[in-house]
What does this fold into?
Amino acid sequence: MPELPEVETTLRGVAPHVVNQSIEALTVSNGSLRWPVTEGISEIVRGQRITGITRRAKYLLFELERGSMMVHLGMSGSLRLVDDGASRRKHDHIEMRLANGVCLRYHDPRRFGAWLWSDSGFPQLDHLGPEPLTDEFAGERLFHLSRKRKMAVKPFIMDNHIVVGVGNIYASEALFRSGIRPDRAAGRISLQRYQLLAGHIKEVLQSAIMQGGTTLRDFVNGNGEPGYFQQTLNVYGRGGEPCHNCAKHLKEIRLGQRSTVFCTACQR
DNA sequence: CTTTCAGCCTGACGGC
DNA sequence: TGCCGTCAGGCTGAAA
It folds into this structure.
């Protein structure tokens, strides 16, 4: 499940190999993703130079001489560099070959991801909240936007209008570190606690990105597996197991159709 | 306006 | 062994 740290790790791993390179060929073997891959994309991007690569939320943006390509990894997507001529694996849907011989493969079993080209922007990016690792995102913002809202705090911080890139894993872990129950109404949390929460969101994301950095070399000829899951998870995926803090059995509930684990003693 | 929920998709896993 | 049901989850768009 690529969350923001994995997308950022992908960006950093791929960037040095693709920036300022020209696209020799882009081959789509299965364009049936979250949205159909842009019609005629191979012809549009052929011969164009990639002028830069950036990230907004969990979207990767390949800037071209004309327009840009927006790539999303969805639930099961990955992007990695392979040896030229390496055999195609099942679920390798798109291949981008560059003039320097670098070959980038997009692999996505569930096909929840996206690969689109546009020269007039992407509506998906229009109403996104701030990046979590910038100063624009702080406890004050969470506090102000949550007033009078009855929604549980966990789905609230996972809402892309509030702040982007906080998926199920990191929302769960940040709430545990902050001692906040995930099902508490967002509007009934103090400014002070939101400041704590914002800090912990930044912390868990930042440490995951740093651990991901240790596996960057695996983007070349590697297995493409993310390394940051090695980080200690206190609650995510641990329903019924003892709390790392007080040893009480962790409770598992569903919030907004997502599994949610927390400690009823440590989180209030 | 806010909130909820179906649907998209495949692989892993448990029960029989 | 294999078949079937359930779960996992980001995001959109429609419904309440």
